[in-house]
Amino acid sequence: MDRKLIARYILDAVLSLAGAGVFLFWTAGRIDWWPAWGVLAVNAAMIAAMGFIMFRQYTDLAAERLSPPKGAKLWDAVIMSTVRLLQAARYIVAGLDQRYGWTGGFPAGIQIAALVVSLLGYAVIPWAVANNKFYSQIVRIQSNRGHAVAAGGPYRFVRHPSYLGMIAFELAIPIMLASWGALIISLGNVFLLILRTALEDRTLQTELPGYAEYARQVKYRLIPGIW
Length: 227
Hints:
Number of strands: 0
Largest sheet: none
CATH topology: Four Helix Bundle (Hemerythrin (Met), subunit A)
Number of helices: 8
Radius of gyration: 18 Å
Structural class: mainly alpha
CATH class: Mainly Alpha
CATH architecture: Up-down Bundle
Order of helices and strands: HHHHHHHH
């Protein structure tokens, strides 16, 4: 294994989790807030699972994700930059909501159910990674890595399973954090993820050999029977 690459992955993960923790706990003015710890735990579990799969099965994917090459679509860069900003804003608003009580209380049972949904949503992502060695951070045809269609695992059911998992996470997290304001922000991210799904799918059908045939076999992008 490439120890330097693993160290970079761990450092990137720690910085990402630390940033989320700062946004949540600093704005909330407290650290004894279990939903925030739940958010960090779900994120940490997903990152650890992804790392385990990548470094065990295809280290070149880890390198691709840590240092994405040039070639990203402009629309993809705009969408994902906006998504990251909204994610930070969601945590900040949720923390302030917790501190000042803008929303009021949520039933603990609903928060726990949201925790379960967020965990299940993010569990789809490592499953997708395990069945797609071209799971890049950017939308591009990876000709340098012999890009081919991924059709196993969750890709047997929908063409973009990881986006479905991300959307479930986006909807569940503000409910777990008991913040209507954060939920409104997350709905913006849901829209952007659906838009990215449509644009990525169009790109793959146009540019990736074999994808159009795969799309005829697996008809739905996100939700079977709907879209």
